[in-house]
Write a structure and sequence with these properties.
2 copies of one chain form a homodimer.
Chain A: H1 3-17, H2 22-40, E1 52-57, H3 61-75, E2 79-83, H4 91-102, E3 107-108, H5 115-121, E4 124-128, H6 141-151, E5 157-159, E6 177-180, H7 185-188, E7 195-198, H8 205-210, E8 225-226
Chain lengths: ~230, ~230
C-alpha cells in the first residue's frame, strides 16, 4: 500500500469504525500541529518578528487542519497570518475560517510572488496546502502557484503530515520540519530536515497494530513526540 | 446573570457567533478535563489501583465531555471505566461511546449502591452527570440516584466544570477538584476542595472581555491553569 492510500485507509478506519468525527479529527490534528511548532520553534527562543507565522491553507481537509493550527498558534501567543489560495465549499472549512477571522487573525488576499517579501515578513511558514493523497501535478492552479512560491522561501517551512509528498518527486516542497501521523516508512528515508515529529497519540492501539504503526513513547500529556 | 445562564450565553456565543462546532467544543473540553486530572493526580504519584478512574456520564452534553475525557485518560495511561446512568439519544454521545467501547474502556451496567465497593475499586471518580444549567432536583431518576451515590464516596471526586452547582444547595455533590471554564464568581466562594483549575484557554479574547472572564495566565501549551 502506498503512503497516501495507507493514510486514506487509516482515516476511513477512524471515521467509519471508530466513529471519530471530521471536526474532531481536524481539531485534534490542528492542535497537534501547533504543539509541534512550539516544540521546533519555542516561543521564548524567538524574536518578535520570528513569532509571525504564515499558514497557507488549501481548500481540502489539510487546509482545515491548517486553520485549526493557526487558531491554536494564536492561543499559544504566536502571530499567525493565513493565506488561502483557493475557495473551499466545505462547511467545516468555512466555520474554522470564521473562528480565525473573529479572533482577528489576518487573512492575506494574495501571496507576494517576490519571495523576499515573505522571507522578510514572517518567521516561518506552515504549508497546509495539500493532503497526503494529493500530488502537486493534480493541484489546482492557485495551489500549485502557492506551492511554487513556498519552494523558493528561505525561512523555515513546516508542513503538517504530508509525509508522502516529502520526497517523492523533484517538484515536492522540501520541509525543514516534518509532522507525521503515521510515521510512514516511505518518507523517513527521504526526509533530511531538522525535526521529525509524530502526532497521532490519539490513534487507538488496535488501529496502530492493524496498520503496523510504530509510534514513539509519548511523555505526560504530550500529543506529539520527536523522532 | 446567574452562573448557569451565563454559561449558556457563553456557549451560544461560541457556537453561533464564532461557529465552533459542538463536536469541537466537546473534544476541547474533554481533553482539558483529562489534562486537569493529570495535574491533580499525576500518574507517577499513583499506585496501579489509584489509576483506575470511574467516569460517570449523563445523557446531555456534560456526559459527552465525560466520554471524551475518559478517552483522553486512556491515552494518558490511566485506567478509566464508564457508567452512563441514562440512555442518550444524541448522535455525538453515541459516537463518543463507540470510540470508548472500541478502545476497550469498560462500561458498567449498573452502579453498585454499596459505596464501599466503588471506594475499593477506583482511585477517583469523574462526575460528568449534569451540565452547569441542570439542578439536581430536575435530573431524571437514574441520574439523581447516581449522584446520590457519588455524594457518599470517600475517593476523590472530580467534576468537570459544573461550577454553579458546586455549592448552591445542601444537596449538591461537593467535589475535591473543580474545573471551571469561566471561573464564575458564584462558585469560588463556595468551593472548599483541594484544587481549582480553569480550562477555557481556547476562549477568544473578545469573548473573555464580553463576559468579564478573568482567566489566569497559562504556561507553554497548557490548556488548563491552577487557581
Amino acid at each position: 500500500m502506498s503512503g497516501a492510500s495507507e493514510a486514506a485507509a487509516l482515516e476511513r478506519e477512524l471515521l467509519d469504525e471508530y466513529r471519530f468525527g471530521r471536526q474532531q479529527l481536524v481539531e485534534i490534528c490542528g492542535h497537534a500541529s501547533a504543539v509541534a511548532v512550539t516544540k521546533a520553534f519555542p516561543l521564548p527562543s524567538l524574536s518578535r518578528k520570528q513569532r509571525t507565522v504564515l499558514v497557507v491553507c488549501g481548500p481540502e481537509q489539510n487546509g482545515a487542519v491548517g486553520l485549526a493550527c493557526a487558531r491554536h498558534l494564536r492561543v499559544f501567543e504566536y502571530q499567525p497570518s493565513i493565506f488561502c489560495p483557493a475557495h473551499s465549499a466545505d462547511a467545516l472549512h468555512r466555520d474554522l475560517t470564521t473562528q480565525c477571522e473573529k479572533m482577528d487573525i489576518p487573512f492575506l488576499s494574495f501571496l507576494p510572488a517576490e519571495v523576499r517579501l515573505i522571507d522578510d515578513a514572517y518567521g516561518l511558514v506552515v504549508d497546509a496546502v495539500l493532503g497526503p493523497g494529493v500530488r502537486l501535478a493534480e493541484a489546482g492552479g492557485p495551489c500549485a502557484r502557492a506551492l511554487a512560491t513556498l519552494k523558493r522561501l528561505s525561512i523555515p517551512l513546516f508542513p503538517r503530515w504530508d509525509a508522502e509528498t516529502g520526497g517523492d518527486t523533484k517538484d515536492a516542497v522540501q520541509p525543514d520540519v516534518l509532522v507525521s501521523l503515521a510515521a510512514p516508512k516511505s518518507c523517513a528515508s527521504h526526509f533530511s530536515g531538522r525535526h521529525h515529529f509524530v502526532a497521532g497519540r490519539f490513534v487507538p492501539d488496535d488501529v496502530r497494530r492493524k496498520f503496523g504503526l510504530h509510534l514513539p513513547k509519548y511523555t505526560g500529556t504530550d500529543c506529539v513526540a520527536s523522532l
